[in-house]
Write a structure and sequence with these properties.
Two copies of one chain form a homodimer. With about 675 residues, chain A is mainly β. Helices cover about 15% and strands about 40% of the residues of chain A.
Chain lengths: ~675, ~675
């Protein structure tokens, strides 16, 4: 691992230095200022290579990933944060992380969960009425139009609580969280239909739809009450929000549905997911049974599940559904009756499932089998249209023949997990091999392996530029590796993850070339998508319109203009309409009494880009990030007497430290000093 | 901003390409395999440069920062996270972030605040008995031995709550949080004495030491009751913890003490800090007064504060202190009487204060004045020893003459904030100019400016390799810029910060050269330190000894070996001793009743590096990161009946998804199934 082939490299290095040195001698093009001397620079490069132990390949990789001063990365990658519960955004090919965004958990830099407005969003994610901040984000997905990323919204799931969130790329903040009313754990998803009619998620750990106890170690009980599902979340593009009312779940058996993908073009209308526990194994290592990992892997095949959301809409319209926890559920028998669900066997405990750019081929990775299985949608439909089944599962769901739906299989290696696509008409896909720590490039029509590259180490998913769309762009592939082990300077037992950037479009080389290793310093990404930056540039805001509530993206009712600041005390409620602008808050003093509720609305009056302020205060556990134009509110009960400094927590100006104030909490029986409250009558 | 000088660059680029192209023609050293052909590679480099618009300088910068596959960064940088309340760790010169560490707030990836052990640490940071998760980290500092970083511990302050934390570099996790019992806001610090006898912090926003109300807008009250201070935290190296019992604060006037630094070598025993409100201005823009930013800047000078902690130890031994909130405080009059405190005027509302590597010179940046003021410790002591004062401040503290303590002043530019040192005997320092967006290199003995480089934009502090020590290494300087504006792809109104890496040791060039721009994606760093990775390599653990409690770094009483798993129910408490190893938890089922307290201790039995597992569960808002060898505990009240899946949240193996279990919560009147509890009698 990580050892260089020293002799060959030294040789090459020497040669390269020699070659560049030849340029030194040969080139006297522009005179001899330190920067202008091309020969001098070539000599410098040679010296740096020698000093730093760089091979010519290293210099090439560096040149392919370096972004010059002030230039923007041409691609952006959205990556999940795993147990950080966040979304990570980074530039490609520089592999520099640009933003880490709070989604399901608390995050103080953005004031996420610490200002009133964001607290309302997080509340939407409550589980059985309680806040749950332990999110596990897995699969971010851009909204799509005509099957390509339009970049307006990002959806992301939380596997641990069965939630999804909607992020608006105008300001890259979370706008909505939705808790699945029937599924407790959703791994597959988010995947979107080709015009984002729906956001598709699949259940992971089967559980009863209700909140009752059922013995998970009783096979009959388990078979009868534990369920999986495919949930289709209706997306209202105008509002930019999930429409829970018009969302629905298709009830499925407890097979641990897994990764999913939506059909497109010819397969538009269908959703596909894998699964890994058609055995319906109950586990119980504590009772001497084989553990889940053994029992779930017993069968030679598990099932791909296909569900038809387009037809399901009709079934819903007919009123053929149950309502469970306020959510529309199409029961299995209704689904079967209406041809909404089919199963196809796949080797062996499969993982990723990906639909090809033209919508025709469905690729499944074997995980415990060494093949990628390529299914042909036309063959699938041929059998479905003629009702040619290979039997039914215990719940009565029709099974289609694996042999008759397969286009073919390609042997890629040990532990195939996921696939991504190159430019559509190349018919090239890339398969990640977890156990082999490698990526295989192959032709999924000709079923032929073309190239293989080692990665470091144990890759999960892959992402390519626009890789999930009808129009993948090629160019770059990123390997989302799960283990870093020795790749980075040691920083303790908890290691970063390792995202490796691979060049897949080098015109001189058909083969993949490793370019860059990027440690992921927080969380554990599981899935990512890469989009052209230009798509986002037109959309993303630089500042907020003055007085915007970031959670509604509309004017806040508490917007305060300069000169309109006020403090009003009504009963035991002190309400402040404040402003922030370089370099002061207004007001600089807030008085209240012990036990008062204090509500402070702050508007950042700046119009200049990046002139962000931030509100921090002693003891009261509230904070707000105040971007230019934003209005945010903090609220608390002033339960302790005393002096509480507050100040600007985002370095904004030369006089940033002088941007502060005092909250003064009086005992109940004390008198307020004169001028403590001021009130402008005009609105 | 950010525009290239196109014509000159294009010219240079053409020249370089031509030069390298000459090498193409001239060099046929090693035959023609794609990797081995030096000429081919030079040709490739030229093509990549053209395609990507890189100048020769860009290629040089890329070559100077690129780290080849599997090679470790030679330097590590610790940076504060600002309002993220975290510590950020990144590699230099690759500028890749390696880890983001939870300190004062909650963080789910590390389970920080979500497992029982870490909750105990966070509790130490409670303010007036309540948890406050809104930390504002500013100044991390490595522990020192003989005035150089020994890298064993990192201290970091929280400006917003007056707290500091101790991080152990064996596993880079927070081990202790300490709340300052008398100061509510501490900006200056953490700075360490040369053998880490003490960790030094200075007050920012003056406030009364107690928790009573005093009118902040009454001058007499303010002058009488509002206080600043210098707190010296005793560090017990053996325990690796702050010893609160032997820590103390020297009471100071309400001058808003600011950035601080400890003396070293000849100035060992002293602590220095700046200040910005000797005006004792009260503000009140809401009442028509000039805001704080104006009033605090009225005077031509503010004060450097010098306090003598070495002498203060003697005063404490004599018993000459008060106890406030359980903390030893040396009152101002006692401090004055014992020669523990002196003031020196400095222009104008100064910011950074830094002691030179030999301990003799104290550099203060003017902030609102365009100079760096260089004070001479020998001159200072000359006056102190002879009691030659320039009067006293309103509290009776002796003032030393600015003129007679200055070595000299250097005019650097607009908004000087901070200084860092190059190799000691060069007498070179670097000054950050916030308003000018530049860095100036100068000789602080000769008081001569040597070079200037623009940065992007508005730099706060700087950091150089071992820059705060007796032995700075030179090589690199990082500019911690506060505004990024247009430097990175647009990602909404909340921008990343921008850390720019500068080459200060290029043997061919006396001048500074910009190398790399690193966006900081979460929080806002204020200060950083850079250390040689080799110092840490011997110390940092790869795995934990089996069964370690990470908060004590010793064996957990709950360590569970394979085969020793058990579930015991006593009354309404279900306690589980569980294990995690690829790819299963043991047990896979936990039964309890509604209302039971459930305590789950999990030991990760893996011994392989980076084989981390993680515990996540539905609804109960607990999680634990389980590094190899670690034992961690989660605890909750099972207040809802039903089925709650739990699973491994850190991708650990091919069968990672199969690593799960069920918590089954029975209604109170139901019967437990057989085998629900099992108990191994032997310990």
């Amino acid at each position: 691992m990580g050892k260089k082939k020293l002799s060959r490299r030294s040789l090459l290095k020497g040669a390269a230095i020699g070659g560049i040195g030849a340029a030194v001698a040969g080139s006297q093009l522009l005179g001899k200022t330190p920067k202008a001397d091309a020969a001098g620079i070539s000599g410098e490069l040679a010296r740096v290579m020698k000093e730093r132990g760089l091979s010519p390949d290293d210099v090439l990789a560096a040149a392919k990933t370096y972004i010059p001063e002030g230039v923007h990365d041409p691609y952006l990658c959205i990556s999940s944060g795993g147990q950080s519960g966040q979304l990570i955004l980074y530039g490609v090919p520089s592999m520099r992380i640009l933003k880490i965004i709070g989604v399901f958990g608390l995050e103080t830099w953005q004031g996420w969960g610490f200002d009133k407005e964001s607290q309302e969003i997080l509340k939407q994610g409550n589980v059985m009425g309680k806040p749950v901040y332990t999110g596990d984000t897995h699969h971010p997905g851009f909204s799509e139009t005509k099957g390509d990323y339009d970049g307006e919204y990002v959806f992301i799931n939380d596997k641990s609580q069965g939630r999804i969130a909607v992020i608006d790329t105008r300001d890259w903040q979370t706008k909505q969280i939705v808790k699945n009313p029937v599924l407790k754990s959703t791994h597959g998803g988010t995947s979107v239909t080709q015009d984002t009619e729906y956001v598709f998620t699949a259940c992971q750990y089967a559980a009863p739809y209700d909140n009752k106890y059922y013995d998970p170690m009783d096979q009959e009980t388990y078979n009868k009450y534990f369920r999986g599902g495919h949930t289709y979340w209706k997306f209202d593009r105008k509002k930019g929000r999930i429409d829970m009312e018009n969302s629905f779940t298709i009830e499925l058996p407890p097979y641990m549905q897994d990764i999913n993908d939506c059909g497109k073009l010819m397969s538009h209308g269908w959703g596909f997911s894998n699964s890994f526990n058609t055995e319906r194994y109950l586990g119980g290592i504590e009772r001497g049974n084989p553990p889940f990992e053994a029992g779930c892997s017993a069968n030679d095949t598990d099932f791909i599940h296909m569900t038809n959301w387009l037809k399901a809409e009709e079934v819903i319209k007919k009123g053929d559904y149950k309502v469970i926890n306020g959510h529309k559920v199409i029961p299995m028998d209704v689904a079967i009756e209406n041809g909404l669900v089919y199963l196809i066997p796949v080797m062996k405990s499969p993982h990723g499932i990906t639909v090809s750019p033209d919508g025709r081929y469905i690729l499944a990775s074997g995980k415990l089998d060494t093949h990628v299985s390529v299914y042909d949608f036309k063959k699938i439909m041929h059998l479905i249209d003629r009702k040619i089944y290979d039997g039914k599962d215990p719940y009565g769901i029709p099974i289609l023949s694996m042999r008759r739906t397969l286009h073919g299989m390609v042997q890629t290696g040990l532990g195939p997990l996921h696939n991504q696509f190159d430019v559509a008409d190349t018919h090239i896909a890339y398969n990640s091999l977890f156990v082999d720590s490698a990526i295989v490039k192959y032709d999924y029509i000709k079923l032929k392996v073309l190239d293989r590259i080692p990665i470091h180490y144990n890759v999960g998913h892959l992402t390519a530029v626009h890789g999930d769309t009808v129009n993948p762009r090629g160019k770059y592939l990123i390997s989302l590796n799960k283990l870093a082990i020795d790749r980075f300077a040691p920083i303790g037992p908890l290691h970063p993850q390792n995202h490796e950037l691979i060049d897949i479009s080098d015109p001189l080389h058909k083969n993949m070339r490793m370019l860059y290793a990027m440690p992921v310093p927080i969380g554990e990404p599981h899935y990512a998508q890469i989009i052209e930056t230009s798509i986002l540039k037109k959309r993303t805001w630089k500042v907020y319109p003055l007085g915007t509530d970031a959670t509604t993206m509309a004017r806040s009712p508490y917007r305060t203009l300069a000169g309109r600041e006020k403090i009003i005390r009504k009963g035991n409620h002190v309400e402040v309409w404040a402003t922030a602008i370089r370099s002061h808050f207004n007001p600089e003093h807030i008085y209240c009494k012990v036990g008062d509720k204090v509500t402070i609305h702050i508007t950042n009056l700046e119009r200049a880009e990046d002139e962000t302020h931030d509100f921090g205060i002693y003891y009261y556990n509230v904070t707000a990030s105040l971007e230019p134009g934003k209005t945010a509110t903090v609220e608390f009960i002033a339960d302790k007497e005393g002096i509480f400094p507050y100040y600007c927590q985002e370095f904004c100006s030369a006089l940033h430290l002088e941007m502060f104030g005092y909250l003064a909490v009086l005992p109940k029986d004390a008198e307020f000093p004169e001028g403590a409250f001021f009130n402008h009558e005009e609105e």
